[in-house]
């Protein structure tokens, strides 16, 4: 009986031991400000997605937390393996990309009491709140460079500047803005205009031991099990 129990315990420990033998999945995360050692992931969504991908890949997990301006360099240099929730046109670089699976919507929010634009074309010449180091190709397809860019280090800080009246028009993802609404940080009477709805991807380093095919297979497994849908609701 004891021998059977020991055998069962040994077999149960094999997957964990096998994962420990592999190099970790170095999951790159954008952080606001200076990252510190052992700093936890900044969002529950990124936390759960990174952990789920690592588990499907049979690897331990290591977060690589960097400012937005350094995340692509980390992938290109082989200092990280995977970065998620981006598109090639937002973050160009010498990397591979998974299939699209993370929905993101970007909007322009107009301050209460300010006449909202009827279309994106009406934003020409306006001061727009944006995030430092981030590109807005879909917006620029419509208005080109005919706007004044007012950057903040992060989307939440850009929202704070907008609330404080630094500019009338804020360009931001709906997920981030809606969290501020739920927290009671947004005054009523704002207007929302959609810039785009898109499905984003994960960038995979070409210097990684993990291939884009393996990451796609992990995404497929999470989707098939229903876990991915639960993770996406955390955004």
From TrEMBL:
Location of the Solute-binding protein family 3/N-terminal domain: 33-235
Domain of life from the UniProt record: Bacteria
Keywords: Signal
SUPFAM superfamilies: Periplasmic binding protein-like II (SSF53850)
Annotated signal sequence range: 1-19
Name of this protein: Transporter substrate-binding domain-containing protein
Species for this entry: Duganella guangzhouensis
